[in-house]
Amino acid sequence: MFDWFKRTLTHYANPLDLMHFGIMGMNQRNVNYIGRYNQRRLYPLVDNKLLTKRLAMEYGVNSPKLIGTVEDQHDIDDILNILGDKTEFCIKPAQGSGGKGILVVTARSGESFIKGSGQAINMHDLRRHLSNILAGLFSLGGKQDIALIEDLIHFDPVFEGYSYEGVPDTRVIVFKGFPVMSMMRLSTKASDGKANLHQGAVGVGICIRTGKAVRAVQHNDPIEYHPDTGKDLFKLQVPHWHEVLTLAASCYNMSGLGYIGTDIVLDKNRGPMLLELNARPGLAIQTANNAGLVPRLRLIEALSKRRGYSVAERVAFAQEHFGVYNG
Prior knowledge:
The protein is α+β, with helices and mostly antiparallel strands. Helix content is 31%, strand content 23%. A 7-stranded antiparallel beta sheet has the order 11-10-9-8-7-12-13, with helices on both faces. It has a 6-stranded antiparallel beta sheet with strand order 1-6-2-3-4-5, sandwiched between helices. It is globular and about 60 Å long.
């Protein structure tokens, strides 16, 4: 089965194999789910992290606190006033992708700043980075952008050793408000501390019922231990799992999008927090779980359209039907 999944993602599998194992391909995802269930007018709500942040604040969805925004040169000149007495923070482009342009500051002394990597930068470096964000250097299509400044996330120590430098996050695919599949993305030295599977991060499939690891992959190959820390990936279990699923399911009510990827982090003080939403979530989550999305999505589609399901009911249904043994 493992070898079959690898061949699937490298485009060698027969389309009939895809159908037989319930694996969703790119075209099926784009046409039958993204195209059908995601209204294009709603895309800006998730493509722009500032709009997502404001929406989360409006709906009371737990997310990292917004310290301020940098929208023009005047704001860059006023950056010290925007930061106030904050000694640690995260700067990110509102329309960035793949972790590009994110600057994590873990300490500060006057006009000197210490990055998450331990490297020191000065005020000139900080302002230049903000200027690059505004110029669209990190944004999709090179569009002019806005910089968000957020509180730094302090990830739960339960994940110590499971990620190299970066903050581990949990991706939950939500369909019509039902959590259908999940994985954790763990950064590595190869991925430069970013949770990007295409750059070499580790994907760990997470059982929807229990929050426990079911499989781990790097570059689509199954692994058992983190390549940099040696941590046993099969001992990984996400705490506050019901809260994670509840937060993910509530994002459907918040965004109005029928098929989304929710990226959630676990802060040691504030618990599960929404990092961002994705209206076009990737398909590698199937490899991490050794299971196809299609049977789960069709089960949701078969439910009565006349009945409204609460967030709690959707989470309960998902945990009953999408556990590790229900693949």
